[in-house]
Design a protein that fits this description.
single chain; mainly alpha; 9 helices; about 55% helix
Length: about 200
Amino acid sequence: MKTRIKTILLLAMLALTFNGCEEPIDYRYADLPRPVECEGVDLALLHEALYSFQQDIGNAYNFRNFDPAEPLFVINGYRTFVHKGGLGEANYAEIASDHTWKIFEKLKDQPIWSKSEGYSHLDYKSPFVECVLSNIGNRDIQETMASLNEINSMSPKLMAEPLRRNINDVTQDPYMAMYVALDFFYQYLWDVEPIKFSADE
């Protein structure tokens, strides 16, 4: 009995040691607003994921050399990314920065992912995702999502074209932006091997 207790204590100490050695995330966007107010997740992490995604698509598609401080930097990224991103045809491995991969590793533990096979890794019935979808400002988009979700047919591929036509809304609607980040980008990272970047990336 004593041996068993010692073994359990040793395993618990080892678990704490390894967890304690895990590299903490440098929250680069902590000073930016957190406009999505849905419960059930680590909101600081989700907002970091959103801003990191926006930076990545801005950088990936900045062919006209927009200043990253300008709104066009982000909206141009969305306009170029959204259709291919929804269809699963974007080059996710090249778009995602090293910082984004670190965020994604933490994001994997959030209760927003589906355990079953389906149209997406995102769990549309999770409280956080349902809250995001129900707060999207564009009523046509919101109703389309609700209808698809009701019949278990919601998917990024079906939303790619409607969102492409309404993508200008994304800069004014943080809930739409969060949905695009999660379903058009992060859920596809589950199936992608990361590219290693330099240490200062």
